[in-house]
């Protein structure tokens, strides 16, 4: 049993903390929102009055927060109150620069740290089947791995500080582009009089095969578990896809990489979001593309 502090008990952090409790760890949590604190309490998390109170005496401190500014702010607040040698883990999806800044805050107090963003969505968080992409020193990763295993099924060490975030935004840039590609193919098929099922049956076993098609098919029917069959309820909201595409484009700019399709995907999701669709699952982009058709 490890004593763990968990800050940020939202859609992802709440079920992740609950899985740590189920694995037999002693979890103390904090969130700004009362409803999240109440759910965490019902899941067996001891709720603290502040983030600083939550980390006192903890051997491991985990954050699952919206963006880089929240992570840097919470880490700045809690690190001075952390126990000697406490392991800092951030599981949020944030920009590489903020991730490296957070590692620097931990290092200044001689605390080991890991950036460990996740893939797998709220279903993966609930089912403890997340994939973790970790960045940080090998020794910090070795300490984090058994803790992360209680919340996920695949834990990958991607490299030094920030490498987990780099892997996450590169993966999600592929995802955003591929979802638009698959959706465009379905919209074209409709215009050509080809049924959704016929396109699916061919492409899912041909060179067009990809996760956006076979696991998360953007039209209802071929994959019954995809959000298209559930009125495009997220799942993974379009606003979060837009956030990750923006992170990829900021990183590309800073690193001098050319990612023209990533940039175009960002602008398509930006229009979708401005159209009031940010809360819709990101596979709902197919309806946006259909509307563009004459
Ligand atoms: P969420 O908004 O549901 O949860 C974030 C929580 O952080 C909220 O409950 C909020 O109250 C809390 N919070 C914010 N500032 C805080 C502070 N100073 N102290 C304590 N609590 C604070 O978001 P989420 O869907 O759980 O996503 C969390 C992170 O995981 C994001 O970075 C997101 O990009 C990433 N992510 C989300 C998904 C998904 O499908 N939802 C998938 C992969 C990664």
From TrEMBL:
Highest taxon of source: Bacteria
Residue ranges annotated for the 6-phosphogluconate dehydrogenase NADP-binding domain, each copy included: 3-159
Span of domain 3-hydroxyisobutyrate dehydrogenase-like NAD-binding: 162-288
Catalysed transformations (reactions): 3-hydroxy-2-methylpropanoate + NAD(+) = 2-methyl-3-oxopropanoate + NADH + H(+)
Pathway where this protein functions: Amino-acid degradation; L-valine degradation
One Pfam family it belongs to: NAD_binding_11
GO molecular function: 3-hydroxyisobutyrate dehydrogenase activity
Annotated family: Belongs to the HIBADH-related family.
Protein name listed in UniProt: 3-hydroxyisobutyrate dehydrogenase
Gene that encodes it: mmsB
């Amino acid at each position: 049993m490890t004593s763990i502090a968990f800050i940020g008990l939202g859609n992802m952090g709440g079920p992740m903390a609950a899985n740590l409790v189920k694995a037999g760890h002693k979890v103390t949590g904090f969130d700004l929102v009362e409803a999240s604190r109440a759910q965490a309490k019902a899941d067996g998390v001891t709720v603290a009055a502040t983030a600083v109170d939550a980390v006192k005496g903890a051997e491991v401190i985990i954050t699952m927060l919206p963006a880089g500014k929240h992570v840097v702010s919470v880490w700045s607040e809690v690190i001075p109150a952390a126990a000697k040698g406490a392991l800092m883990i951030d599981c949020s999806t944030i920009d590489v620069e903020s991730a490296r800044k957070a590692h620097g805050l931990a290092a200044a107090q001689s605390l080991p740290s890991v950036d460990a963003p996740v893939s797998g969505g709220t279903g993966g968080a609930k089912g403890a089947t997340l994939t973790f992409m970790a960045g940080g020193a090998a020794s910090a990763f070795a300490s984090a791995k058994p803790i992360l295993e209680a919340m996920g099924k695949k834990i990958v060490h991607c490299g030094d500080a920030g490498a987990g975030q780099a892997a996450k935004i590169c993966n999600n840039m592929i995802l955003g582009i591929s979802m638009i590609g698959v959706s465009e193919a379905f919209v074209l098929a409709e215009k050509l009089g080809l049924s959704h099922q016929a396109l699916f049956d061919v492409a899912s076993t041909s060179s067009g095969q990809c996760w956006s098609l076979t696991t998360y098919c953007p039209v209802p029917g071929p994959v019954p578990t995809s959000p298209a069959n559930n009125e495009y309820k997220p799942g993974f909201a379009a606003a979060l896809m837009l956030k990750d595409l923006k992170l990829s484009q900021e990183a590309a700019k800073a690193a001098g990489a050319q990612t023209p399709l990533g940039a175009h995907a960002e602008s398509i999701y930006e229009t979708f979001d401005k159209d009031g669709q940010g809360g819709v699952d990101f596979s709902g982009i197919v309806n946006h593309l259909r509307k563009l058709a004459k």
